[in-house]
Amino acid sequence: MSTRKELFDTQTIVEEAVKEQIEEPAKYHVFLLNDDYTPMDFVVDVLCNFFNKTAEQATDIMLTIHNQGKGLCGIYTAEIAETKVEHVVQYAFEHQHPLKCVMKKA
């Protein structure tokens, strides 16, 4: 018959083995890219509506996009990043703007 200590030791070993197998999912950066046609207020609108940024945060990111060519909108797991990119691209297309949104592994 197993003692209580043996059961505890076995459970601890199993828990440690499972923890070693579990990895945090990969993260992806989502960027908006600068273009010469999309209005700045549309970019701010996208940042507020799709990335939950405040008007001030969105304006700062928009200026970064304008001055540096791209701006980081957020860091997400692959599925969420893909969804954000698809939604932004579709929204821009519907409003006839060439705004590009991309994701890159962090």
UniProtKB/TrEMBL annotation:
<comment type="function">
    <text>Involved in the modulation of the specificity of the ClpAP-mediated ATP-dependent protein degradation.</text>
</comment>
<dbReference type="InterPro" id="IPR003769">
    <property type="entry name" value="ClpS_core"/>
</dbReference>
<dbReference type="GO" id="GO:0008233">
    <property type="term" value="F:peptidase activity"/>
</dbReference>
<comment type="similarity">
    <text>Belongs to the ClpS family.</text>
</comment>
<keyword id="KW-0378">Hydrolase</keyword>
<dbReference type="GO" id="GO:0006508">
    <property type="term" value="P:proteolysis"/>
</dbReference>
<dbReference type="InterPro" id="IPR022935">
    <property type="entry name" value="ClpS"/>
</dbReference>
<feature type="domain" description="Adaptor protein ClpS core">
    <location>
        <begin position="23"/>
        <end position="101"/>
    </location>
</feature>
<dbReference type="InterPro" id="IPR014719">
    <property type="entry name" value="Ribosomal_bL12_C/ClpS-like"/>
</dbReference>
<comment type="subunit">
    <text>Binds to the N-terminal domain of the chaperone ClpA.</text>
</comment>
<keyword id="KW-0645">Protease</keyword>
<dbReference type="Pfam" id="PF02617">
    <property type="entry name" value="ClpS"/>
</dbReference>
<protein>
    <recommendedName>
        <fullName>ATP-dependent Clp protease adapter protein ClpS</fullName>
    </recommendedName>
</protein>
